[in-house]
Amino acid sequence: MTAPDDRDRLARVALNRLAEPGDLRVLRLVREVGAPALVDLLREQRDGRGVHTDVAERLHGLDPERELADAADLGIRFVCPGDTEWPAQLDALDRCEPLDRQGGAPVGLWVRGPLDLAAATARAVAVVGSRSATTYGADVAGELGHDLAQAGVTVVSGAAFGIDAAAHRGCLAGDGPTVAVLACGADRAYPAGHRSLLDHLAATALVVSEVPPGAAPTRNRFLTRNRLIAALSLGTVVVEAAVRSGALNTATWTARLGRVLMGVPGPVTSAPSEGVHELIRCREGLLVTRAAHVLELVGAVGDDLAPVPRAEQTLRDRLPAVQRRVLEAVPVVRAAGVDSIARTGGLSVTATSRALEALLAAGAVERRADTWRLAAPMAGRDDPPP
Amino acid sequence: MTAPDDRDRLARVALNRLAEPGDLRVLRLVREVGAPALVDLLREQRDGRGVHTDVAERLHGLDPERELADAADLGIRFVCPGDTEWPAQLDALDRCEPLDRQGGAPVGLWVRGPLDLAAATARAVAVVGSRSATTYGADVAGELGHDLAQAGVTVVSGAAFGIDAAAHRGCLAGDGPTVAVLACGADRAYPAGHRSLLDHLAATALVVSEVPPGAAPTRNRFLTRNRLIAALSLGTVVVEAAVRSGALNTATWTARLGRVLMGVPGPVTSAPSEGVHELIRCREGLLVTRAAHVLELVGAVGDDLAPVPRAEQTLRDRLPAVQRRVLEAVPVVRAAGVDSIARTGGLSVTATSRALEALLAAGAVERRADTWRLAAPMAGRDDPPP
């Protein structure tokens, strides 16, 4: 796509002002005829009585150049398709089934902050979840944000209370870039308690919104905002989400976009984990417990494979086969004679005696008169069964 | 299969005494030539110098009738294929790939307790897990055992400390039958601290073992015991299992048998949940959080569907479409005029005004002079986004 000329950019600003986020009627027409032609069409629209429609009236009243200048005064720029900073992955929204009759790639985004939006989201993962998070959920989200940052992954989230904020903060602590996508103007703080967090993100990273500066958050803007969080990212991790959490809306967008949907489990007794468990149970989402699992799923095939957790090698693992077989035949509780152990192990008495002597030297068994039993450390291990 | 005659039963007792559990050489020969013929063959076996082999000597020294009588004195019977009490699902072990070169359906089982083993395990689920369980894990296992019992499902487990014991006890509390499968003789208590639990199970339910009365538990007997827990059950639920837990051995048997493998998640910060998470993450096991999920998976297709957890219907859900659309356009924080709300909602000012009046009556919005905002209970909800 070529860089947008001024006419295209100004038309997009006008349409952005005019239409609500995710308004498919407008977004589809932009794709079909282009933004400037659509603005011209709308500007001349008349109703049955021949007077300008409400939309046409509003368009006449708009001054996109002024909008851009006012936004610039707030440190906010308008990024649209064709700009080098435009994240191409958003275009997938145009090929994605709508949700509640909304969807589509936005005509542009209002961006506040020093980073390049395309570069910052070239390898990004969304970490979202409940605003009524538990300390467990917030801890996990923070650690995830931190570890993803350390792995060079940008964390995208919604700057809400709870999981979102923990993920942003974790990412900052990991010296990574993090992108907050808001449902209100990029100059506003919602929730108000996150004013300093948002200012910090705007000063060091990015705050992004589909709605113009000054716009208020509405329920609909939260829902259409969620599609941007999903579409900017290679995948979405849901950390905690009750059965009816907004985070599950982001999860639905992620699945629709064919991006990787992931969930972090928690105690089954915790309501904020119930929505996540349901995602995993119904095999819509994949279980992850740490950043390494996320990286494995969003990374290139074969790269970024998460190490499989392994218990430490035990003495038993290091024994030669015959000694291990004899050791397995030594009773856990009562001591037994060589004959009995040989029978249980299916080995000759000679081989069994030799192995028992070696096991005695290794501290794995104890001898008492003519009987043998497991040494305390071998018998006392809890898992696996002795 | 016809009922075993005395010769067959006594031959099986002899072979049970002679061979370790899961010894495929013996079990395959029993299938090929039958137990009595195998005993005759082994009894005459001679080594290179023409003297009876060790095995032949041991067979000559055995008195199966006496074994049965001694077991009966301990309240233990020998159940073998052809008995009405024989659980046919164990025969699947003969068609199942060995694990560590062991496997196969046992030649018989030593059974202690008043229930019929086949009837008690006709609809059974294994609940297993770590011996070093957390209180969380034990609570979940107990509740699972209780709820499965209440649903008429028998809980099979290994009577170990931790998850096993909690599952047995939960099942008892739910007035259900529960079956303990031991790695030692059915007369013995391992762990010793579970003497009273095991005696209670033997008095009211069932204690089962592949090894004869008096036999000591060995590591190998734990591992081969696990195949019986898996094979007796329609599926296995792993509640907590560290990365190297014996419960994962039961999980492997479950998968090999093609039975349903399930896992209960927990905090990702909890080591005893790590093995379970790995099972789910690698899609070997299915996530379950409650008995209803287990019943759905092991039940008949279409029956026993678990209810999908739903949040309560809210006022918003019950509103007519236009009112809901207007409500969604009302800002969360600042109040807005009818014009602005109509524009955001994409509706006429008249329709918007009418809807706002209705929403006011329903308590969903507040009017202040000529502006409207969400009523506190609508704005204050945490999830989903307002």
List the helices and strands and how they pair.
2 copies of one chain form a homodimer.
Chain A: H1 6-18, H2 24-33, H3 35-43, H4 54-61, H5 64-73, E1 76-79, E2 109-112, H6 117-120, E3 124-128, H7 135-150, E4 154-157, H8 163-173, E5 178-182, H9 195-204, E6 206-209, H10 219-232, E7 235-238, H11 247-256, E8 260-263, H12 271-281, E9 286-287, H13 291-298, H14 315-318, H15 321-329, E10 336-337, H16 338-345, H17 349-361, E11 365-368, E12 371-374, H18 376-379
Parallel strand pairs in A: 3-4, 3-7, 4-5, 5-6, 7-8, 8-9
Antiparallel strand pairs in A: 1-2, 2-6, 10-12, 11-12
Give structural notes.
Two copies of one chain form a homodimer. By secondary structure, chain A is an alpha/beta fold. Chain A folds into two domains: 233 residues, Rossmann fold (3-Layer(aba) Sandwich); 65 residues, Arc Repressor Mutant, subunit A. Helices cover 45% and strands 12% of the residues of chain A. Chain A contains 18 helices and twelve strands. A nine-stranded mixed sheet of chain A has the order 1-2-6-5-4-3-7-8-9, with helices on both faces. A three-stranded antiparallel sheet of chain A has the order 10-12-11. The longest helix of chain A is centred in the middle third of the chain and has 16 residues. The C terminus of chain A is likely disordered. At the A-B interface, α7, α10, α11, α12 and β9 of A face α7, α10, α11, α12 and β9 of B.
